[in-house]
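Here we describe the complex-level prediction in full. Unlike the single-chain runs in Section 2.1, the two entities below were treated as one system.
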Amino acid sequence: MNVESWTRFHSDLRHPYWWGIMGLIVIESTVIAIFLASYFYLWIVNSSTSRMSWPGVELPSIIYPSVNIGLLLFCGWSMWYGGVLIHKNKTKAFGWLAVGCCIVATLVLWFRWKQMLGLPFSYDENAYASFVWVLSGFHFMHVLAGILGTAVIGWLSFKGYYTEQRNLGVQIDTIYWYYIVASWIPVYFVIYITPRVQW
Amino acid sequence: MNPEEKKIQELEDTWINPPGFIGWLRIVNQTNIGIRYINTSLIFFFMAGILGVIMRAQLSSPGNEIVGPEMFNQIFTVHGTAMMFLFAIPMVEGLGAYIVPLMIGTRDLSFPRLSSFSYFVFLIGGITLFGSLFLKVAPNAGWFDYVPLALKEWSPGKNIDVYATVITFIEISALAAAVELIVTILKQRAPGMSMARMPVFVWSILVMAFMIVFAMPGVVVGSVMLALDRLVGTVFFDASVGGDSLLWQHLFWWFGHPEVYIAFLPAAGVVSTIIPVFCRRALYGHTAVVLSMVAIGIISFGLWVHHMFTTGIPDQANAFFSVASAMIAIPSGIQIYCWIATLWTGKPKFSTALLWCMGFVIVFVMGGLTGVMVASVPFDKQTHDTYFVVAHFHYVLIGGVVFPLFGGVYYWWPKFTGKLLSESLGKWNFWLVLIGFNIAFFPMHLLGFMGMPRRVYTYLEEMQWGPLNLLSSIGSYILAIGFLLFIVNVVWTYLKGERSGNNPWGAPTLEWAIESPPRNYKFVEIPQVNSMNPLWDEETLLPATTGMRTDRREVLITEILTGKIQAVEILPTNTIWPLVLAVATGVAFIGSIFSPWWFVIAFFLVFLAITGWFWPSKPWGEGRDV
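The structure predicted for the assembly as a whole is:
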């Protein structure tokens, strides 16, 4: 088989990087799953032994976390649509969508910051409080990483590096944004919604 | 220069390693990284082994004061931690990084820069752990580092901070290597090498890598929580405010038990590779062995609570995990029967490599039998935390991991260096280790029955543990001499070793089809594979393709199940950025021992390093096919 004329520009699941980013996402998802399993473990242990009523502190407001879901979904959409545009060689348009994604994601961070400062408990008050702080902080770090990475991708796009064929970096960044968005949803439900449900 | 010579020269130039010390730091070639992994993990193995000998010297007679109680705590903790995190995992991953690409007929791992990064992380983490011992601030709560002992209140020094941060740091290395191995195995096998034709060793590495991906996050989460509890003040493990000490045990053993099989499965892959070669027949029950490996990989995630039988968890949970623990003996037993059947029906040539495998079968079966014993809750409650358990896991880990890995080193040494290790020195090496090991560890079963607890730095003469401890210590000295002979063998071979040729054992897998040691590009042409044992079944290997460019690092991408050609991709070249990223990550974790702000600072250093890593070098070209 002669492969001389084959393209070397792949950005889908034929490229090892696509699998590599999936590997990273599986690892990080397992980390989050174990955090959440630990959360329920402590809830069950405390309830079954009557050691502490869960969550044991005044519940945090869900306004900012809920608004952030919408904003994060916009980030995921903008990166997806940016990918559509770049396949049509509209690289500048993609660049502006990347800028938009970064701005909205920065808003997510600002809301998260305000939310954390306004929490009715500190991280050392009890185990529930520790989970809220650590999981929100963990996700904060991921959004920040997403912003920085997307800023670089956007910059390269404006400089003309990406084309309708050479856009692997865009695809990888987009997949990571999907993960940032998707990971917030279970975290949000577990730490903000489940303590409100009357079981 | 004819066209073939020109092509080879161009491949040499494209895949060249940069010269000098800075160049050495920039190399990303898989054989170089693999050898670094193997060498470094062997050095850590010998360092941790010396700690073991010091412990045995201390325990050789009652009332010894060679080391005091605090130093003894640090020594046994670093011994266990180093053997598991700095020897077992990196050694099997290093062997995988070196052998797998050659065995599946590709030119490099999928992410060469990631392999360089993971090696430097491993190296920095290892140096930090041993460095802390020299500074007398090493972890001192045992390799499983139970809370509440490991919390700030009971361990106020920096010792446990070193554990909590360095362990997560080292796991980054293991996780990166695991992803790399999975993708390489799934996507870069030579055309025609379907899953069914994949060598057993490659299967074992694939299962191991998947296990790492799902097991390691357990200890990552646990040690992050521990580090935060100690350094920031969160309360995940504080039972007075909703935390729980047993949470740590669950998280640790979620990783810790699969970890045994993470180390064992590649070792089983080595044995499944060596036995057929020296018996001159295909492996008996290839499919059964592969399915057993997959079964072990899955079942091993359902056993972790058997480390916690004495913690007061409900009887029903004990019963479930007891049955699951006994169940894993079934796939393990199937493998052992297949190896015995291969030996039985073949014509074994008892080379040193095969001897290590034979030793493995005997020692591992003994460790497995005591494993079935401690899987029983009533028995475990009697022997928990005694020397019986110490004997059991050394039979499993030295028998099940160290013996096969040394067999693998003897087997693949000609591929690594182009020279054969001395067979006569090798046999001395093997027999001294086998004899020394059994003298050192068999008496520990009896000491456990006599009630000697593990992790005591000394004992009273009236306990009557002295004679068996002395015997055990003498065994450990013989064991140490046995391992020293390996170093002697390496030096002797370096100086006077016999040239091996490309395939000294007449082995059937692809790594033996190329030069020893391999050129940086490995294969001039990627071969077409038509059987499970290509070098036994085919007279000549035919190239799978034409038209791959030689002026850049191209590899073939194939379909996961069938091995059909799917694409051609270009791999990145040598760079310093993986080292920079490893150092930045090290600042984040090791700096956290002193202040959490180091993590924040290093976050931005990591971003800069990643940007440098992926920044496209100019000229950028058209960015499309012309």
